[in-house]
Amino acid sequence: MAPERKFFVGGNWKMNGNKKEIDAIISFLTAGPLDPNAELVCGVSPCYLDYVRQKLPASIGVAAQNCYKVAKGAFTGEISPAMIKDIGAEWVILGHSERRNVFGESDALIGEKVNHALAEGLKVIPCIGEKLEEREAGKTEEVVFSQLKAIVDKIPQDKWDNVVIAYEPVWAIGTGKTASPQQAQEVHGKLRQWLADNVSAEVAQKTRIIYGGSVTAENCRELAKEADIDGSLVGGASLKPDFIHIVNASQ
């Protein structure tokens, strides 16, 4: 990780937790100790966003796990960036592979969501990543560049400070399989070069690209040592006290 890019860890709770379990997570996060030089954001289910924002220390960010592309209207079951901001949360995760592959969200829709969330003042963690069959067919770059382009085309030049890109190979999410630090670094390096070639050298250098896919307390430090891996987006492991080690992986 380059020194000008602050280490970033997202804890994506997914569809997990009740108030009792969330209180336990808040307790171990509050106790820490957390690396003061790392930025931590927790991705929370919609019905608990307000509860978590009120209980977590202000130094820890809170993200919604999804939102829609307009401010309000007849969109049953959706939430808007305006609602997320209204309860005090600052972030949203968009385009997670589960949204793409379970719920059928397209690259184009995810780009529109990113654009609206940024316009409304949220910070965004857009996610990209290839499936196992795509990697085995040698299509990793083709897939992730295409996903990235659909997002980048919708990011205004003055909003890049509010974007943290997450690379999550789908075959490594929740499977126990992790891209090796070298495999992850290879893709992160190519993503950064793509940003340099297609946006600007400045954006490429300052934008954080984090890795997701079975990150654990055991492998987090090796991943954090790589030059273009600026942190991690963590699923199940973020529900457990060992998550503290992942947050502190760059120390």
UniProtKB/TrEMBL annotation:
A biological process (GO) annotation for this entry? gluconeogenesis
GO MF term list:
IgE binding; triose-phosphate isomerase activity
Keywords, ordered alphabetically: Cytoplasm, Gluconeogenesis, Glycolysis, IgE-binding protein, Isomerase
Q: Provide the reaction this enzyme catalyses.
A: D-glyceraldehyde 3-phosphate = dihydroxyacetone phosphate
The EC code for this enzyme is 5.3.1.1
Does the UniProt entry include the keyword Isomerase?
yes
Which branch of life, at top level? Eukaryota
Tell me the subunit arrangement: Homodimer.
Family assignment?
Answer: Belongs to the triosephosphate isomerase family.
This protein is called: Triosephosphate isomerase
Q: Which organism does this sequence originate in? A: Daphnia pulex
- Whichever gene encodes this chain, its name is EOG090X0BSC
